[in-house]
Amino acid sequence: MQEKSLAEYAKDLEVDKLKSQTDVLNFAAGLEDGAVNTYLGFISVFHDGQLSLLAGQLAADETEHFTLLSNALGRPLPAPFSFGA
Predict the structure, then answer these.
(1) Greatest pairwise CA separation for the chain in angstroms
(2) How far is it, in rounded angstroms, from Cα 77 to Cα 82?
(3) Collapsing DSSP states into helix, strand and coil, what is residue 20?
(4) Is there a domain that residue 78 lies in?
(5) 62: Cβ contacts below 8 Å, ≥ 6 apart
(6) How many domains does the chain fold into?
């Protein structure tokens, strides 16, 4: 599998549609939300407790990013236990 170029990543992510600060913040918040849910999904898959711990720590970090971006957008805080559902 060949590595994609930056232009290919930009096209796949449709970054050409980002026209305002709000667009960029919404885009970033969506990426963070996806990251949180991905890390949470991996916690139970790992058979190594250290890897599960790391996935939990990364999920917490990404949750902080998502919360800060949501706040910058004027959105309410995420509901408890809303991630990973």
Answers:
(1) 43
(2) 10
(3) coil
(4) no
(5) 32, 35, 36, 39
(6) 1
Q: Write out the two tokens for 72.
A: 């910058």
6-57 pLDDT, tens digit per residue, is 999 999 999 999 999 999 999 999 999 999 999 999 999 999 999 999 999 9
Query: Is 10 a member of any domain?
Result: no
Q: What does the alpha-carbon distance between residue 73 and residue 67 come to, in Å, rounded to a whole number?
A: 10
Within a domain: 44:
yes
Residue 4 lies in a domain: no
Phi, psi of 46 (to 5 degrees): -70, 135
Task: Report the amino acid identity of residue 80.
Answer: P
Distances (CA, A) of 71 to 12, 26, 82: 27, 11, 16
Cite the beta strand spans of the chain per DSSP E: none
pTM, two decimal places: 0.82
